[in-house]
Amino acid sequence: MAYTLLSNCPVCSHSLNVTRLECSHCDTKIENTFELSKLSILTAEQLNFVEVFLISRGNIKEVEKELGISYPTVRSKLNEVINLVKGEEPGQKKEQAKLSNSDIITMLENGELSTEEAVKLLKK
User: Fold this and answer.
1) Do the domain assignments include residue 100?
2) What is the pLDDT of residues 50-65, one digit of tens each?
3) Is the pTM of this model over 0.85?
4) Domains in the chain: how many in total?
5) Where in the sequence is the domain holding 97, given as residue range(s)?
């Protein structure tokens, strides 16, 4: 049974180092210090979100439909993943990026927002 790779210590929560790779076919073992991908710090839920986002080619409207979540929730999850990949601590609060009116109109034109959603965002 294969387990998901841990990136943080379950005892102290600090980053873990990968020091050994092993082939399950020929039993070759390689020992060294290996770097993990920046995406390895994401939770299973965050990875699922990233997969859906990529498969939908970044179309937020499609992500909303696939995950059954609202536009603001999609933006929030996207900002959360971006902040983690940029190396910000999960507890750090960053001001959510506000969309400009031209961004909202472009998203409306691309079908990423409904008219109602665009109106709500423009009123904010």
Assistant:
1) yes
2) 999 999 999 999 999 9
3) no
4) 1
5) 40-123
